[in-house]
Specification:
The complex is a heterodimer. By secondary structure, chain A is mostly helical. Helices cover about 70% and strands about 0% of the residues of chain A. The model of chain B is unreliable at about 15-20 (pLDDT under 50). Classes of the chains: A mainly alpha, B alpha+beta. Chain B: Keywords: Cell membrane, Membrane, Nitrate assimilation, Signal, Transmembrane, Transmembrane helix.
Amino acid sequence: MQHQPHRDFPTKPPSSTVSLDADGKTTDFRPFSAAKSPQMRTFHLSWLNLFSCFFATFSIPPLIPVIRDDLHLTASEIGAAGSASFAGAIVSRLLMGPICDLVGPRIASGTLSLITAPIILATSLASTPQSFIIIRFLVGFSIATFVSNQFWTSSMFSPSCVGAANAVAAGWANMGSGVTQLLMPLLYSLIMSLFHVPSSTAWRLSFILPAIFQALTGILVLAFGHDPVPSRNRKVGPKESVFSVVMGGLRDYRGWILGLLYGFCFGVEMTTDNIIAGYFYDRFGVNLQTAGTIAACFGMANFFSRPTGGLVSDAMGKRFGVRGRLWALWVVQTVAGLLCVLLGRVNSLWSSIVVMCCFSVFVQAASGLTFGVVPFVSSRSLGVISGMTGSGGTIGAVVTQLLLFSGDTMSKQTSISLMGLMMIICTLPVTLIYFPQGGGMFCGPTSNDDPLEENYTLLE
Amino acid sequence: MAAHRVIIMASLLFCLAGTCYGKVLFSSLKKTLDVTASPKHGQVVEAGLDAITVTWALNKTLPAGTDSSYKTIKVKLCYAPISQQDRAWRKTEDELSRDKTCQHKIVAKPYDASNKTVHTFEWLIERDVPEATYFVRAYALDSNDVQVGYGQTSDAKKTSNLFKIQAITGRHLSLDTCSACLSAFSVVSLIFFFYIEKRKKH
């Protein structure tokens, strides 16, 4: 890696317990114990920072029923803004990969959080549909922090627990998109009743909270996070340039397939975050707070569902190697697609809520399973592969939002079912992924040991 | 045969029950009330500042007894077609329980059939009413709160007598200043951090 780590992890672990593998990565992943080791402290700071970015980006959708009347938005403009929020993230996530390889995830995350916090504040200044769309585009940049977060955890935790570590970090951070759906309508009502301001002022004031939260976590990450050390055991080949690292990643077809898959698990999850509160509000006539609460259940399932995906990936990896991880990914994501189709077909409020909850568990577990495979594609180009996959997620979100949820041509329930169908179809390419040392879904491994270990695939 | 009869009776019962439980269709209502509103066609009034005066009375040409079941009159502010375009949350549906055309209540008053005068009400436009083009409609409700008649200021195609309500802006100087200060804090912290890092390196 090109950056100079500012603070290294201690070379000799203290007499309590940081056990390290040959690569200097820890094999200890204990998210619920007190964060004594620098890795766990950094882990917590990083996911909290990403949580604040999700909180901020998705703080706008739950208030759209109020904002749309204030800015006289049409359904097409709302759809365009939703797509724009993801489009901003596509480019930034792609760039984030090489940036992490260059300056390290700590500086990358912290800087991005502090730069995008003012943009969330700028939401309160929007007064035309065009400015609203532009702001949502710019706010979307902050969720590029996802790439640096996954890069960070993949660098700190060894292969035996990297699936779980990646998934817990991403899952707990994704909860931000759920918590915000709950908090923002409550905050809006509170501001209106406490300060006796009209609705159009109250929603603007509400955005101060996500902005402050994001800035604070950015500062904490910069001040207290630890940069990962470069991998010690890797046989370094010819001098690496940024260009070769980036091209190495882009040339790998597995990065593209994982990007597509992630587009249809995480991308679908993000689109659902955008539309689900409005769906319940408009279709079943519940009030803003209730719609927000239901939408929050969707996002907050991330607390256990994405980590479960990671744990399943690690467990399958232990028993069946990377083939097990691929199979688990295909099964879970296909089931998620089926549940999504069902969500668009059910007609009552309570059955919709139940199906939505099941759908949330499976689609989020699929995201966790995808990043259980990512660290194994390439060690040298880990940042780039993470960036490609992460970008794929947002591209999937833009595509589904644009195709299915802009304008009035289709009813929302039909769009949801079609989204499920797209998920099932676009999950099929996982059958094409093949690791020379680990095999693919339908083929066993071929002979191994690339003499230069140029691609350096990590396997148990 | 007996089975057929049971099915027919059951369906009739369900239809009637449906009517009792609010599945009233707008197309089944008769226009029995004359409703007027003070704004002229194309006039712009301001939310939170201006007031509109609405009047309603039973149409004089109708036979006696038309209003025998009317117990309440509910007057509402309704979106004109131009403000409903590309906005599914304001869509007009024939089934009144799903109709979203009239979302803002102006007033609800009890109805006395013996009182033949024209009723008037002056309404200060609430400041949370969104900026859009509107007309006024009054529903006559029976003792079960089910719509049994209506009247509106506009024509059947909702093209005449439409007026615009201008909303207040939520932006204030204090809010703008607060946002600017917090943004500056964010950027300054970043610059401060880089400065500290650079100093530590040397």
